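Late entry, evening session. Most of the bench is empty. Finally got around to the prediction I had been postponing all week. Sequence below, unchanged from the version circulated by S.P.
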Amino acid sequence: MSEIIMGQVRFLLVMLCLGMALICGYDFLRFFRWLLPHHKAVVWVEDILYWFLMSVPVYAVFFLYNNGEIRWYGVLAVFLGGLLYE
């Protein structure tokens, strides 16, 4: 198989795993909320902060594995990875 195709397959697998890791991290946040119930406004702020902070590793993975190009199939693979985790 061509090195270019192997690189793209590796990129898709990394994006799938990244989507799973993002939702797994969010599950830890939900578990924390289950242990200590929060007010709705605090939950909203926590969600915004979580997804804002998680955008950094997502961008880093796109930058490292795809030379900074955000491809539609990479974004789709992140969403699919999240769905597979759930």
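Two things to note before I forget:
Residues 3-35 form the longest helix (33 residues).
The chain has a mean pLDDT of 89.
Will write this up properly tomorrow.
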